[in-house]
Amino acid sequence: MSRHLNVMEEILKQLAIRNKSSEDKEAFDPFGEGATMELLDANDVMKILKISQSTYYRLVKTGVLKPIVIGRRHYYSKQQVEGMLKSRMKR
Predict the structure, then answer these.
(1) Is the C or the N end of the chain the one with fewer CB within 10 Å?
(2) What number of other Cβ atoms are within 10 A of residue 39's Cβ?
(3) Which candidate, 87, 91, 79, places its Cα nearest to that of 31?
(4) What's the pLDDT at 25?
């Protein structure tokens, strides 16, 4: 799974660089100084949120969960999942 995360980070960096103007490309770091983005796959999200697979896909379909899709796999930032977990706890 760590190989997928490294590939994902590289893809996100390339996309961010393409969106910046050419003179800013050298200094632009999409993750900040030394920052890393921790990604979770769909199974991790289902375990953390304690939801079934059908509930997971319903949340994706309705837009409550917004995955980063690479190929046919869904990934999420850990911050997004933690935010959803906090919002569920408030109810």
Answers:
(1) C
(2) 21
(3) 79
(4) 47
The two three-digit tokens of residue 37, written as one number:
């983005």
Secondary structure of residue 6 in the 3-state scheme: helix
Write the DSSP symbol of residue 73.
E
State how far the Cα of 87 lies from the Cα of 91, in Å rounded to an integer. Answer: 7
pTM of the model: 0.56
The residue with tokens 């697979």 is 53
Q: For residues 1 and 72, what is the distance between their CA atoms, to the nearest angstrom?
A: 14
Partnered with residue 70 across adjacent β-strands are 73
Q: How far apart are CA 82 and CA 91, in angstroms?
A: 15
Q: Provide the token pair at 89.
A: 């706890």
pLDDT, mean of residues 59-80: 89
